[in-house]
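Task: encode each sequence below as C-alpha cells.

Item 1
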Amino acid sequence: MSDTAIKHAPFVRQEYTRDVQVPASIGEVKRALPILERLWNMDMVRRISILVLLAIIWETYARWSANPLLFPTFTDTMEAWWSGIISGVIPARLVVTLRMLLTGYALGLALAAVFVTLAVSTRFGTDLLSTLTSMFNPLPAIALLPLALLWFGLGAPSIIFVIVNSVLWAVALNTHAGCTAVSETLRMAGQTFGLKGFRYVTKILMPAAFPAILSGLKIGWAFAWRTLIAAELVFGVSSGSGGLGWYIFENRNLLDTANVFAGLLTVMAVGLVVEGVIFRTIEIKTIRRWGMQH
C-alpha cells in the first residue's frame, strides 16, 4: 500500500473493555434537614420573625424614651388594640372602611378593564389611555378631595370617587404594559383562531400578561388603602362618618396615643393579610403554578 493510501486511510480505534466496579454502599442520598433549617425555609416563619424583631425594637425604644404620650410601648398598644376589638369599636370602624374600599376598588378595576380593552383593540384607545394616564396618574388622588366635595358632597360617594381615581390609572397602566409585552407568537396564534376584541383580550393577552396585571392589582390596592385612610381623616372631621381614619383622628384629639397606634396597627394588619394571604394565594395558584415566576 502506498504512503498516500496509508495517509488517507480511516483511523481505527482499538477496542477495549473495563470492568464495572460496583461500590459496596452508595451512601446517604437523601438527608433530612435539621428542624431549625426546615422552619427557616418557611416564608411564614421568616415573616413572623421579622415582626417579632420589630416588636422588640419598638418595646425597647418606648421604654427607653419613657414618654407614653408621644410613643407608647408595644404592650400598651396591644392592650388598647385588644380593648378596641373586644368593645367592638375597631371592628365596626373596620367594616365601614372596608365597605368603601371594596366598592371603590371594584369600580376602579371595572373602568381599568374598559380602558385597557379599548387600548389593545384600537389605536384610538391606545392614544386615549396614554393621554389620560399621563394626565391623571401623577396627580395625587388626595388632591381631588375638594373637587369631590363640590360634586358629591360629604359622605361615602366622595371617598369612593377618590378611591376610584387612585386605583384606575395604576391598574390600567400596568395591565396595558403587560399586554404590550406579549410576544408576537401568541398574538398571531390568537389571530389564527379568529379571536378578536374582548375574546382576544381575555383568551390571549390577559393570561400572558397576568404577572404585570397582578403587580398592577397590588399597586392599586396599596394606593386605594392609603388614600382611603387619608380621605377618612378629612371627611370624618367634616361629616362625622366613622372609619379607621376617623378613629385615628378622634383619638389623636383625645391625646390617647395608644389608641392612635392601635388604629395604625389595624391598618398595617389589614395590609399584611391582603398582601400575605390574598395576593400571595393568587400568585401561587396562577403565575407560580404556570412557571412564570420563581
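Item 2
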Amino acid sequence: MLPGVGTLINAVAILLGSALGVLVGDRLPERTRSVVTDALGLVVLLVAALSVSAVLDDELVAAVGSGPAVLVILFALLVGGVIGSLLDLERRLESVGAWLRRRLVRGGDHGHRFVEGFVTASLVYCVGPLAILGALSDGLGTGIEQLVLKSALDGLASIAFAAALGWGVAASALAVLAYQGFWTVVGLLLGGVLAPPEISAITATGGLLLIGVALRLLRIRDVPVADLLPALLVAPVLSWAVGSLF
C-alpha cells in the first residue's frame, strides 16, 4: 500500500463527518450545541488521562526512572512552550483558520466560529499520539491500522464538532494532511527512529496537551496549546538524553 493512504483516509473521514455534523447542527438550538461541546470536552479529558498514564509505562520508567520521567515531560513542555511562543504558533494557526475562512466560506458562518472550529479540531486531531505514531507506521510500511482507527474516531468527533462549531472543522482536514504527511515522510526517510521510551514520552506529553484542548472546549481557560506543540518533538529527545545517562 502506498505511503500516505492512511492519512488520506483520515482526511476524508473528517470531511464526511463535518458535512454530516453541519447538516445536523443547523437544526439544533444553540443550547444543544453548547451541551455537545461540553460533552466533547469531557471525552477529550478521558482520552487525555489515558494518554498521560504513559508516564508510568514500564519502558519509560526503566529507561529514565519514575521521578525523572515526570521531569522529562515537565521540561519538554517548558522548552516546547518557549519555542512555540517565540514562533507564535497559536497566532499563526489562527491566522491560517482566518485565511481559510476567507477563501472557503461565502456567508452563512460567523468568522470567529469558523476559526474556533478549525483551531480546536486541528489541535484535537494533530495532538494525539496516534497522529504521529500512525503516520510513522504508515511511512515505515508497517501498516495503517492505527490511522484507520484514528480515522473512525476523528470522523465521529467531526460530527459532534461540526454540529457545534460549523465548517471550520472540515478545514482541519488540511492541517491533518500537512501534519501527518510530515510524519509519514519522516518514517520514510529515517526508518524506525523511536524506541518505546520515546514513544511513551510523546504519548504522555500529548495527553497533557489534550487536557489544554479540553479546558478550551469546556470554556475554563484558553490554553495556547499550539504554542506547546513543539514539546512533542522535545519529549523524545529529552527521554533519549536522560536514558543515556542512566
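Check on item 2: The mean pLDDT is 84. The chain has one domain: 5-245.
End of task.
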